[in-house]
Amino acid sequence: MKKILMVAAILVANLAFLALAASQVETVRPIRWKATVIGANLMGLGDFVGGVDNVNINNGVSTDLATGNLYGYIELRVFNPSFRFFMDANAFSGSPDDHPSFGFPRTTTPWPFCIADFLNTYDQPTEEYPYIVLRFTTCGCGNTITDFMNMTEGQAIPVRMSIRFFSHIWGCPTSSSTFLNLNMNAHGWYKQGTGSYPDIYIQRVGNVWTASVNTVFDNPAYQNPLPDSASADWPVTLRDSIIGQYATCESVPVRKRTTYITTYHYPWAKAPLNFLVTFTKI
Are 239 and 224 in contact (CB under 8 A)? Predict the structure, then answer.
């Protein structure tokens, strides 16, 4: 009888321990973020809180499929018109575009000036561009840091910035939606020397990670041509630029049927971009 009682007591103690451990796991709260966007070219119309009013703020670690390397990321994804851009059309330069029929809604100016025309006229995102993603990553900037959460107090590191305006997936035959997709892409670098801050960086102070962007897309390591391609993958590791994306279709008869060859085009542009995003853990 004593052995039975002892076994029962041990079982009760183990169950109590497991229940306590489970309760501790359940009380771990996921990180919640608040973001504020302000600057010369980009302003958020109020604060953004992750999970509230069609706003997502995500961070974590992922794997670069091309290199297999780990990288950290933090991003703000907005689904309501909540951004206001201030881009100087006179400051734009870039490649010519051989297919001017592909542009932005309700604009008639040619590439690249149509970028400022569209961004400045409407709060973003628009109906045609249902969401915008501001994303910062550690990849491609010579970092040893692969997780923003591991940054030390006051540490500042160069980061890659991407601001993506996505309209639709291009395919053949071409759909009725012919608007450009757009990606503002740049890798931070120490243009004034390693004793200064990079032109694009994130700095941690307490529970605040501040992303600072002050670039003209001139990182010398990312100034390669953007050739036409059979791939819809953005060529973001070739050139730091404001990159457009559209596709053209060539019909080819094959055994009395029509097939299509899809070619993706990537016109590019440059203009000064200057703003701050503060990501605060709440």
Answer: yes
